[in-house]
Every structure is written in structure tokens, then in C-alpha cells.
Write a structure and sequence with these properties.
Elements: H1 2-26, E1 40-45, E2 50-52, E3 61-66, E4 77-81, E5 87-89, E6 92-94, E7 100-106, E8 112-121, E9 127-137, H2 139-156, H3 181-184, H4 189-198, H5 218-231, E10 241-242
Parallel strand pairs: 2-9, 8-10
Antiparallel strand pairs: 1-3, 3-7, 4-6, 4-8, 5-7, 8-9
Helix pairs in contact: 2-5
Bound molecules: heme C.
Amino acid sequence: MKRTGMRASFLVLCAALLTISACTRHSGAPGVTPRAFGTALVSVSGEKQFAGVGSQLEQPLVLQVNDAKGVAVAGAVVRLSAAGGAFATPREGLTGPDGQFTATITLGGAGGHYQIVASSPTASGQQIFMRVDESALGYQEMLGAKLNEIHCIRCHDPESTAERVSNMDNLTAKPHAFTDGAVLNPMSAADLTSIISHGGVAVNKSAEMPPYGSMLTKQEIAALVAFLRAVADPPYLAQGVNYASN
Ligand code: HEC
């Protein structure tokens, strides 16, 4: 009898302490209790995707918590936050036996970049952070995305999928991924239009970049340029970023 009483009051004390710490640290967030702690958060997959405004990204975002030796940590808490109407489902949870946490991302209603901030508490009560960039595309940019699927992606994406084998290895001059803002942002809209319309030769680049001027309309080429600007990471200067407040 006495023992059960003590156990019960111990549990009440624990609950009270948990509530206090949850309130002070996360201003009332529901709070998942960590079973383990890591020292690094890394992205496994699902970064730099794009989809239409307000829609869900095709691939889930997969993050991993590691310890100081780079070994995956199971039972660590991962929290995700976003701004501009974008959100993750679930917003928080524990890493699985493989040290990974998976969430689906839904983009906000405006076109542009969305930054997703992931955090995980460490043993010393600090937080480790990492940020991933995703893009929401408006109508014209979605048209560009579709044209990219049909005409460009086989050379410009180094990854192969079940439906598509990347052609990149067969090319002498290496094309860049369209998300490569470091390369594409400094190119003017006129240069991009020119290389897409007239091919690599027109701008003193490789002839392996074919001309599309007779196959695509001016509107379609403009849509491709808009798409390149929309998915660039780091973001193209003229585009706003929805930074998560974390
Ligand atoms: C057959 C392969 C191939 C296809 C298909 C292709 N490209 Fe390229 N592209 C290249 C190569 C190779 C280069 C690099 C040329 C160089 O650096 O000399 C390139 C370069 C570019 C560049 C300059 C930036 C960079 O990546 O170096 C842009 C912009 C570009 N391509 C856009 C497109 C668009 C848009 C399409 C689809 C309409 C497309 N490409 C289709 C091979 C291709």
C-alpha cells in the first residue's frame, strides 16, 4: 500500500517536472520525450524538391541523427518547422532503429522557396539545427517543370530512376543540375534563353547541349527559364524565401 502510494507520488512529480520543462523550453509544444541524444543532424533524402503551390512534395524528407562518431542514434527527437503556410507531417517524432525520421512536406500557397528547419535536442540541453530548401512553383514554372521532364532532365540530372536512365555519364561536357544556383544564378535570362534556343554552340559551350528554338515556343522557353529561377539553391536573388522562425 505504502509502496504504491510512493510510486504514484513519484509519477506525479515526474509528470509535473516534465510539464514545467516542456513549458519553459518549447512554450507549450506537445513535446515528444527523447530516449537518446545525438550531436549531428544530416539530410538523407528529400531536399531541393519542387511541386505546385500548396501541394505535397512527392518524396518524403528523411533526416538522420548521428552521434559524435557518425553512428545513427535511435530514439532521438526531431522537430520540423516551416513558414509561409508550409508544414511537415508529423511535425516531430523519434528517430527509428536506423536513426532516421521521415516526414512529408506540404508547401505554402505562394510560389517561391520554403526553408524547413529541423532541430534535435542534445544531451546538454542545446539544440542542433539543419535547414533544407524546397520550392513551390506557380503555373508558368510548373509548365517549365513538365517541359524539363520531357526534354532536359535526362542530361541535367545525374541521378537515374526506375523510369529514366541518366545520360550524364555519356557527355563530355558536364551539364549542371537545374537546382545548382551557384552556376545558374549568374547567367542572365538572355543567356539562358539563348543557350536553350540556339544550343551550347551559340554561347561558346558544348554542342552536346541541343538547340530547342524550333521545337519549343517562346512561351515554353520562358517557362523553362522561370522554372530554372524558381528551383535554384541558393535562391535566385529576385525570389523571396519563406524562412522558418526558429
Ligand atoms: C543531350 C543532353 C542535353 C539535353 C537533352 C539538354 N542539355 Fe542543357 N546542357 C547539356 C550540356 C552537355 C551542357 C553543358 C555545356 C557546356 O558546359 O559546355 C548543357 C548546358 C545547359 C545550360 C547552361 C548551364 C549548365 O548546365 O552548364 C542550360 C541553362 C541548359 N543546358 C538548359 C537546358 C534545358 C532547359 C534543356 C531542355 C529544354 C536542356 N538543357 C537539355 C546537355 C543537354
